[in-house]
Specification:
Formate_THF_ligase_CS; Rossmann fold; 559 residues; 12-stranded mixed beta sheet; nucleotide-binding; ATP-binding; Formate--tetrahydrofolate ligase
Length: 559
Amino acid sequence: MSTTTKKPKSDIEIANEATMKPIVEIAENAKIPLDAVEQYGRFKAKIDTSKISGTANAKVVLVTAISPTPAGEGKSTVTVGLADALQQLNQRVMVALREPSLGPVMGVKGGATGGGYAQVLPMEQINLHFNGDFHAITTANNALSALIDNHIHQGNELHIDSRRIIWKRVVDLNDRALRHVTVGLGGPLQGVPREDGFDITVASEIMAIFCLATSIKDLKQRLARIVIGYTYDREPVTVGDLKVEGALTLILKEAMNPNLVQTIEGTPALIHGGPFANIAHGCNSIIATQTARKLADIVVTEAGFGSDLGAEKFLNIKAREAGFEPSAVVIVATIRALKMHGGVAKANLVEENVAALQDGIANLAQHVANIRNFGLEPVIALNRFITDTEKELQAVLQWAEANEVRIARTNVWEEGGKGGIELAQHVLEVINQPSTYKPLYELQETVEQKLVKIVQQVYGGAGVQLTEVAKRQLAAIEKNGWDNLPICMAKTQYSLSDQPGLLGRPTDFVVTIREIIPKLGAGFLVCLTGDIMTMPGLPKQPAALRMDVAEDGSAVGLF
């Protein structure tokens, strides 16, 4: 008699089978006043933050990860599972997450709302056009582009040099064909011809502003500071010069309210904003995080990719801007990903390989060092996979013990909050201890000093070199007095270096700064490294090929 192994349910199957509570019930349990809840159907709402009183004093737990690999780490899954585990331990907790972009949803990753029994719901709606926020950001960005070209067409009172316009259009999809385009063709009535290009919406400065603004007033002031290009005399031109910051604020007004949803276990979650961490700052909105800090005692949030990207920007940009100190940092790691960093091909990851695993642990060691460089003590979440062997698990646990790092076996994909109890207990220990958190650099340091600190203390590299283009841009930045801003590195997520193929823990590398772009509205300098693209492309077999709609209208293949 033969036996068959039952195929595990997919994330979307688990999500579709879950029983959600009405969003008003989630809001009531979170002590959100009913008049602050603007329902978007039965299971989603926007929260009017002007009606939320109290002080933002909850402890903040940041979830980050090792350098990501195609093997997967499960950072969002652990974030949700940790929050559910803390709720099981009778803690008042909220999740604060980024919104998914259709770029990775349709590209490589599929859905982006956690996984298994550690998900936020309604998964399908969160992944697709979630409450219109990304539409509003895309529209505001492209309205500014239209207003710039109209200003030039109508006489160009500001003497904008069309060759030096740095503002790009955006779309929330991976579309490499739009990286470089020409606009204004077709004769005088169609505008003034010029070269242009598209970024993905999550790389827009308006997305960054959306996530860093603390109020409508702050939003309008930040929008006014955006540099869109330069005059024929190479003087900067801003949105304030165009006098359109009010119109852009109007487009974004409703979107500025954070979105309330729930986990499978009913933990309240605020999902708002979604900048990528490899080409932007990788954190959800300050408004959502601070709102959650008024409503809960613990806020669990995440930042994109590994600690060299999202966490570095969370700790150097977001926390500094918001004025809070994180109380704990969780680093997600998997046996599979560590073996890949140790040189094992993806096809061979199911085979036990302790030697390669021990080589790959060097990558984890750098991420632990990164968090400690900020004065914080990390907790490792060893995210379990069915192919992990006991020898491999023990190798990582023994390394953690030898290096005095807290570590917890985590199985939230299969068990939900129950599988994160050990992790939650470690986190509770850490957040009740004093923190010595401090940003890595002071704002008054030179741009090159800040860059060197990031490369040496976060990436483990030797230093930086600037291209001639970057040197000219830096000279203009210094001339304009913009050099006292934090740095937002645009770097590959796959390596600690700027070279995607250098896995593990490379050393003695030099990071090349290709361009330095001032983002005065966001309040940072974007430094493009290596071959990083602000408009990604689709893979050969995009996730979209596996997506469909069933006869009952439900989504198929989102994850």
